[in-house]
Amino acid sequence: MTIPAQSDGAETAKTPAATLTKGAAKGETLLKVTGLQKHFPIRKGLLSRQVGAVRAVDGIDFEVRAGETLGVVGESGCGKSTMGRLITRLLEPTGGKVEFQGRDITHLSTGGMRPMRRDVQMIFQDPYSSLNPRHTIGTIVSAPFRLQGVEPEGGVKKEVQRMLEVVGLNPEHYNRYPHEFSGGQRQRIGIARALALNPKLVVADEPVSALDVSIQAQVVNLLDDLQQELGLTYVIIAHDLSVVRHVSDRIAVMYLGKIVELADRDSLYTAPMHPYTKALMSAVPIPDPKRRNVKSERILLTGDVPSPIAPPSGCRFHTRCWKATEICKTTEPPLLELKPGQQVACHHPENAEDQAPQDVVLLSAAKVAIELVPDAVLAEEAAAKKSEAPAEKAPEAAAEAAETAEVVETAEVAEAAEAAEAAEAAEAVEAPEAAEAPEAVDAPGTSASVEAPEVTEAEAPAEPEAGRQESTDK
Ligand SMILES: Nc1ncnc2c1ncn2[C@@H]1O[C@H](COP(=O)(O)OP(=O)(O)OP(=O)(O)O)[C@@H](O)[C@H]1O
Ligand code: SF4
Ligand SMILES: [Mg+2]
């Protein structure tokens, strides 16, 4: 599917037909994840004794099938990026298993992972910090060839230029530097780098969230086209439900380190079964007999997301769920296929048989867990925000960006360069954390660097509903 979009200045010439081939039959399981965990230790004291752990990913199971796009959504901090880094083996899992094409890669060493890096690539969130400002586009996109010691037919330069063309950039720009490109074009460069070695699986962590809304659609459409042409398999992580809806075949919803619902896109959007998914969708009425007399309006979750250091007992969502009963507090619901193709972890799912029908008394927290806001009020708020935001924020943001661009210190660029170098070394990718971390990567004195991040923030699409409620709560 294609979303209409404005141009990001990239070449619009039709991309050359794919010459790449894939090694997996469509629909075959490419990646299988079982009980995957990542606990980041918390250390204290002189002896750095471990006093706890951030349970960023806490036992998740899913499969990715060749040729599909699996979308991953959830509130900030629920473990999406950690999951992405675990499956690309940029992070060492604490527990569980990752199998790629039937091969256990859970604890492969860097050397052992080297051949696999060709097949599994990552696109990073921020096109400003993930490209080395000191390197030309040619050097950046050809890095994977150098690192893997691959000499394509016709030479690296020719192949890189072909890739630039595939992603809609002018191959003549081979010798230009990142600061000479806009945000959308930079993300295309990142995509070209990720696709250079003809990977089978591409994990994209918030690939468009740093981009202007109109450019987001351009990049999403590009990813979509490339998937058709090159037979790629994607795992796309995003905050924005509309982006995920456009690109995904199936969607996994994460909450506090767990997958709470995994279903095909249409089922998830038309009949979500997990109360949290439903809150994320938010525009749906609540057909809940326990709340029969409550007017069905939009659901806004109240309360903060609990800490992943000490997640709630039983179902992790019970502190914010309007359907929570005693069993939810004591017993963790397993992720079960309650409808064909729809897996849900809930004792009292929506649109399906109750898994604990004997447990009918709502927890007291459940009675205040959500706020039902009339559609009219939300519409008014949205309209008010829309009319205020660009007018007030954009000039301010642009001015700020212009200032920043003027005073960018060499040291800052060097720092960014280091981070980007790390990202380029798609191999030794203990790096992406470093690559993604620094915000300030604009190269000095260019209009491209002036425009993008701040304006993007001002225009960024709305957070999922639950996230929105957090701010309402304050
Ligand atoms: N290297 C790390 N050390 C310690 N804690 C970490 C580390 N990386 C992530 N975390 C923690 O793990 C949890 C999950 O983080 P993660 O980045 O995976 O979330 P996310 O869903 O990608 O959030 P966002 O949508 O904001 O990007 C967070 O509580 C985060 O603070
Ligand atoms: S198990 Fe209970 S608390 Fe958890 S989502 Fe389902 S109803 Fe809500
Ligand atoms: Mg993230």
Automatic annotation (TrEMBL):
Residues 386-395, 465-474 have a biased composition (Basic and acidic residues). Residues 1-20, 386-474 are annotated as: Disordered. One of its GO terms (molecular function) is ATP binding. SMART domains: AAA. Pfam families: ABC_tran, oligo_HPY. It comes from the Bacteria. Residues 396-453 have a biased composition (Low complexity). Residues 42-281 form the ABC transporter domain. Keywords: ATP-binding, Nucleotide-binding, Transport. The keyword ATP-binding applies. InterPro entries: AAA+_ATPase, ABC_transp_ATP-bind, ABC_transporter-like_ATP-bd, ABC_transporter-like_CS, Oligopep_ABC_C, P-loop_NTPase. NCBIfam families: oligo_HPY (TIGR01727), PRK11308.1 (NF008453). Belongs to the ABC transporter superfamily. This is ABC transporter ATP-binding protein. It comes from Streptomyces kaempferi. The lineage of its organism: Bacteria, Bacillati, Actinomycetota, Actinomycetes, Kitasatosporales.
